[in-house]
Putative ABC transport system ATP-binding protein
Amino acid sequence: MEELHKTYGKMAALAGVTLEIADGEFVAMMGPSGSGKSTLLHCAAGLDTPSSGRVFLGGVEVTALDEPGLAALRRERIGFVFQAYNLLQALDVADNITLPLRLAGRPVDEAKLMAIAARVGLGSRLGHRPAELSGGQQQRVALARALITDPEVVFADEPTGALDTRTAREVLTLLRELVDEAGQTLVMVTHDPVAASYAHRVVFLADGHLAGEALRPTPEQVAERMTQLGAS
Ligand SMILES: Nc1ncnc2c1ncn2[C@@H]1O[C@H](COP(=O)(O)OP(=O)(O)O)[C@@H](O)[C@H]1O
Ligand SMILES: [Mg+2]
């Protein structure tokens, strides 16, 4: 990401952010509410376009793509996980997980579905509807859905924000395993210092600017930095 600006009227949600994320890296983005975390994540993921600046994914300039190009990029090279799971209630777990493949007109590989479901601990739940699952299980379905297309990057916006502490830890452990064992590149917005401590690196945002970073952070270090940035 090079010199990203995003303005809404006179308000600068992003005020010149330059950030490089390496292949296989797990980066957490933190900052006070309104500091631009979601805007940055959405611009990085091709869900939103910056007012100026450039975004690259691998060799592709994301900011040079037209809307069909962006749609294809999101479908084929990027995975998303949101706080609210965003599962389709009428579909069972298997059909929710494989939805991105069917939307892309790609064949559903049953062996791959089984492997990913097992990876996220849902091997015995494929026939269940989302309403029959706990919050943690629903977020695992959303994660499996994000992984089914082998994305180069998974972007997650507050993926544990709706989960209780223990379930959040389980999902975070799973995310970290995907990074450590499968080399998944992962970018996660969070306001939880403990969640951020699962990342290799935490980048801090304040008022649309980068405000430092921490490598291999402890929850205490992250919490202290957040206090300095004026977050409650
Ligand atoms: N669609 C929008 N229209 C106007 N202002 C927006 C819009 N989206 C975000 N903002 C503003 O941009 C700033 C950054 O928002 P956001 O990226 O959502 O922050 P965060 O995720 O860190 O809480 C906030 O002041 C927010 O009100
Ligand atoms: Mg946000």
Notes: The mean pLDDT is 95. Residues 165-182 form the longest helix (18 residues). The helical segments are 37-44, 67-77, 93-103, 110-119, 135-147, 165-182, 193-196, 219-228. The pocket of adenosine-5'-diphosphate (ligand 1) is lined by residues 8, 11, 13, 31, 33-39 (CB under 6 Å).
